[in-house]
Amino acid sequence: MLYRIIILIIFSQSLLFGQSLFNRFVGTDPFMGSARSTSMGNTHLLNSTGSANVRFNPANLGTMDLRRGFNFQVNRLSVFERWSMPVRDSFGEFLTNADYVANEFSNYGISSGLIGSAKLPGIGIAGMGIHYAPLAHFTYHYSEEVRGSYSIEDGEYASKDPFVGYQNLSINGTPMVTSLGGGIQLKMLEDFNLRIGGAINLIESITISDRVNVDTLYSDVTNLTTLPDVNATTKSPTTNFMTFSTIMNWASNIQFGVSLEGEAKSTTTSYSWSTDSTNGLFQYFDDSSYVVSGTNYMKPRVLSLAISFISDFENIMSIDFELDQVTYKSHLNLKNYKQYKLGFEYLTQMETAIRGGLIYRTASIPAMKPVSIFTFGFGKSLGNLIIDAAGTYCFQSFSYPDLFPVKGDIRTDYDLVRDSQLHLILGLTYRF
After folding, report:
1. Contact in structure between 195 and 186 (CB atoms under 8 Å)
2. Among 61-70, 190-199, 377-386, which stretch is predicted with the lowest mean pLDDT?
3. Percent helix, strand and coil across the chain, each to the nearest 5
4. Does residue 293 contact residue 84 with C-beta atoms inside 8 Å?
């Protein structure tokens, strides 16, 4: 019954999240944590598990509960995108939005790491760890099937809108980050202890590929773009950022956490981007060419505050709140934004953890609206093995000019882009 309710909520909510169209410019959400914290509204500060603590909350390494362990996690992000154009009647009145493109693609990521902790006589508990995971990705795939026209004579069998070719845009690139850090727990009073920690995060150099091609079947290219094909690669430089965090226990059932994650900028010597002057959104093409080259990626600075309430009457339940202040400074056309997060975890009598959460985020791209996301998941311990699963679902719609402009097209209306994303995570942690 519970799973039916979850599925019903997923497909009945009108929820908004990041748009895959702009992955090439800003990347996807760079805050992909453990399956547990993701399912609890991305409350990574207090709810990360395993080696994900090294990246998001190194102070949490200083606890005996972690002991020594190895974790492995698989992420799968599926995107379904539809492009529609407005259809009007002979009087110019709007009728409907007609789909002419349906794209579907997936991006996979794998993360893993090691952690360990030990007692320090007279001081407390110290822990260390290493974490390797995707930071974000720039993947985007667009394929448009183009139809032409044909005048049929009497008695002739043919299609009035024959298939004439494809217009394709394909971008790939996933930066990986290696995090090394440690934390220490200082025992001060019976119900009050302090944990502090820090980590350095190394972003690897990657190659981003851009490919634009138009496949034609006939010499008649009336409905196809005349833009030239593009096959380019960009190698991003390595860079790094620091993470610092602290956790305080106010009582046996209340935790408060603070973390500061530094910024990192990965810029090539030559790059060019452009924005549409009418809507302020990033654009791939001008009148004659593909304008995107190089990279100028900014991993923003993040200041996080979080609080967790834990109840242990008959069944343990925790409720978590987190606020993130994300700062881009003056990078390109991106603006600073906030994330408001709510997550919960309920432990059943069968010792199965049921989790869920909500996120509300103000827009980082000025022309876009605020966004929100719904999260869900569960966890189960089998001896020393811990299994965690998480999922997120989101949907967004916005207006955007025709991606592949055709010469002579006088249509002034923007297309309607509808973007659905389903993110699934499976994590395994083994303690020894």
Report:
1. yes
2. 61-70
3. 10, 55, 35
4. no
CA distance 110 to 112: 7
What is residue 326's predicted lDDT score, i.e. its pLDDT?
A: 93
Cα distance between residue 427 and residue 137, in whole Å: 20
Q: Which two tokens stand for residue 390?
A: 């998480």
Mean pLDDT of the region 232-255: 90
| Mean pLDDT (whole number) for 389-394 | 92
Burial 45-65 (b: 16+ CB within 10 A, else e): bbbbbbbbbbbbbbbbbbbee
CA distance 45 to 123: 24
Total domains in the fold of the chain: 1
User: Which segments of 13-98 does DSSP mark as H helices, in order?
Assistant: 23-26, 35-39, 44-47, 52-56
Whichever domain contains 93, its CATH number is 2.40.160.60
User: What gap in Å lies between CA 417 and CA 22, rounded to an integer?
Assistant: 12
Nearest to residue 360, comparing CAs of 378, 343, 377, 335?
A: 343
Contact call for residues 367 and 344 (beta carbons, < 8 A):
no
Q: Could you give the CA distance from residue 377 to residue 389 in angstroms, rounded to a whole number? A: 5
C-alpha 118/C-alpha 245 separation (Å) is 19
Of the candidates 116, 151, 84, 44, the one whose C-alpha atom is nearest the C-alpha of residue 425 is: 44
**CA-based nearest residue to 115, from 127, 97, 100, 101:** 127
The Cα–Cα gap between 30 and 176 comes to 11
CA distance 348 to 314: 9
Q: How far apart are CA 79 and CA 77, in angstroms?
A: 7
Question: How many C-beta atoms surround the C-beta of residue 197 within 10 A?
Answer: 27
For strand 94-120 and strand 176-187, is the pairing parallel, antiparallel, or unpaired? unpaired
Identify the helix (H) or strand (E) that includes residue 22: none
Nearest to 34 by CA among 17, 3, 18, 57: 57
pLDDT given at position 12: 34
Q: How far apart are CA 256 and CA 65, in angstroms?
A: 18
The residue range of the domain holding 163 is 2-431
- C-beta atoms surrounding 373 within 10 Å: 25
Q: Is the pLDDT of residue 269 over 90?
A: no
- 3-state SS class at 173: coil
